[in-house]
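ASSEMBLY PREDICTION REQUEST
Request ID: AP-0331
Submitted by: J.K., bench scientist
Number of chains: two
Total residues: 854
Priority: normal
Notes: Please return the full assembly, not individual chains.
Input sequences:
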Amino acid sequence: MKSFVIKGDIAFNETREKIKTLENGYLVCVNGICKGAYKKLPEEYKNLEIRDFSGQLIVPGMTDLHVHAPQYTFRGIGMDLELLDWLNQHTFPEEANYSNLEYAKKAYSYFTYDLKRSFSTRAVIFATMHTDATVELMDQLEDTGVISYVGRVNMDRNGGVNLEEESAEVSLQETGKWLDRVKGRYARTFPILTPRFIPSCSDELMQGIGKLSKEQNLRIQSHLSENPSEVAWVKELVPQSTCYANAYEIFDTMGNENCPTIMAHCVYSDEKEMDILKKHGAYIAHCSDSNMNLTSGIAPIRKFMDAGIHVGIGTDVAAGSSMNMLKAILNAIQASKMYYRLVDQSVKPLTFEESFYLATEGGGSYFGQVGSFKEGYEFDALVLDDSKMYSMRDLTVRERLERTCYNDADVVIREKYVQGENTFHRE
Amino acid sequence: MKSFVIKGDIAFNETREKIKTLENGYLVCVNGICKGAYKKLPEEYKNLEIRDFSGQLIVPGMTDLHVHAPQYTFRGIGMDLELLDWLNQHTFPEEANYSNLEYAKKAYSYFTYDLKRSFSTRAVIFATMHTDATVELMDQLEDTGVISYVGRVNMDRNGGVNLEEESAEVSLQETGKWLDRVKGRYARTFPILTPRFIPSCSDELMQGIGKLSKEQNLRIQSHLSENPSEVAWVKELVPQSTCYANAYEIFDTMGNENCPTIMAHCVYSDEKEMDILKKHGAYIAHCSDSNMNLTSGIAPIRKFMDAGIHVGIGTDVAAGSSMNMLKAILNAIQASKMYYRLVDQSVKPLTFEESFYLATEGGGSYFGQVGSFKEGYEFDALVLDDSKMYSMRDLTVRERLERTCYNDADVVIREKYVQGENTFHRE
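STATUS: Completed
Returned structure:
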């Protein structure tokens, strides 16, 4: 069932800089693993079922490396605020509603419905501080077919009305209960420790999370250096830190290459912070739509890539206004062009190829061999119908691919495969 | 037939800074003119037909102040290039095809089909240097219901293979023929003189266009200060000019308050250039999507507004990848936030209200009293169905409006009125 061939116009990154395309090519899946893309189907696969998507684009599934599920239903509202005001006026009051399980059930159903139909085959997700609601979200996610990490959020300070845990102890206890409840419960949905960010977590809580991560080999996700006011605040809160990343390091929450931490944003990460991220094998979730909306700034992604730091793309709903990864690819390119033009002309803009790489293999590598059609990779694939976008001449597969990212609203997902399983289909 | 009332959730700018909203309000149209928006329908309009769009948003029609019709079918391709390379590699070869009338007919049918279904009720459009194709475009535009200015492009130098007029004289002769052919031909479609930009037009041609504009009271549109290489080139081409805008001024093509010139971009317009734009009552067409795509930079729109210069928004297809004005509103906000954050923190970002204003009344004023529901304005209105964007709580009309601009793909245009005429309807 998980061994078959799909036929169509295939595109994927061979390297960070180069996209390989195969017009009318064959993509082979054996037991959920990609066995390569071919112009001519090799003899050994000739007895496999061929699913014909001729004329449609076939691209790797995408990884949304940073998205807040409970914020989904208020995206695109209050966008003239900066981070800390936006959190206090919009986000925290909304997240407080998730203490009500019925509310959470309904709200998360909107999120999971759309995620299933999105370009993402993998996602790393923030829930809220509510255990029941987080388990509900994970239950729903398991049914989407998307493979995800999900975090029950830790926050024992500065959360505002009805969105603050009583103490570090309570926060850690609840985290333990949550981990017990979800242990072994899912095939596709995994827990990830999620201290919201330093301003939301006391030293004691951060230390507890660092310890828990080590003991149980659990990954961590959080936010880093998003906004100037936030960065200044962290320096006050952890005065002994040499930088924001070092504050996480002090609490032993920066992870390592085998158990990598994801840090969203990194807009203000300088050389010192880059060294720390690199040393720990951390992932940067680049969220340029969010960073523009909240007037945060632009992260120098090329610098990170050149330094050998892992980078992927996050939509960061609801500071990003959409879960659409094609839009996120475009935003990352535009942001990098403005960084080049307005900040530093020694930092070249991201090419289309590079941004596409970040959305596929860049973030996908957080899940293993994911996000490419190279042999041995897990078979995450999207069949995209771009026929609505007429042209006056024949376009190359590469041109069609670029065009879909610049006009995402005109692309239709026909099939979505995750690890070789057809998780979504649209006529 | 052009006198009626529409009912729904009304939103429009009362001032540049403030959006007035009326939930379940009444918007009155008498003979194509807006007679105001009311919470309770005034007695004098009670015998007019009421069209009920309860629960849907009603907003002013939008003005796309700068868009290239012949570039529509290759949008979203070659976007990693900067302006001059992009023109030479993609735009000029494509525009050369419009010497073939059958080609133009087909290609323009894609443009006009989508324009009719877009958020724009008014548009100012570049065609190509081909007279027959330009008349074809205008014929098609007349049937869309959209009110537009359309320019046959003048370019007698630096156009490349098959896209350059023989001489200034030929260019002006052809312009004269074109003007004769379209004179009195349309109710909604008007000619505008369109020297492509200084690098494409010899001094003699520019002078001829300036003269023609004065003699026949014809408006002019062109490009100004888009890209650093272009700005430097213009300085070489017109060495006696004090700045790029002054080069246009020297040739008498900057217009006046009664016959205003539109200048697209103005990314690099400094105080001197702003003085010239202001003095002539010119309009700036702000094209932030394009300016990000071609790595041009960000125009300091607040400075222009504060100086009292007219500003509207252009989608600038195909350097902008879409004709969607809601997307353009969002892009303008994001660009202004990055200008504030990365360039000059004394230039505050555009608020949502201000960007919405630019897309409606800001650009609309180029057409007269257009782009608002204030009494006496021409009745250009859109009925927008935003019901696909669920929410967990009741949203204000203002919140729904912001959300539609941040998630344009989820909004459906149900009705489009231009001067009181229902030009488009979707079930």
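REVIEWER COMMENTS: The mean pLDDT of chain A is 97.
SIGN-OFF: pending second reviewer
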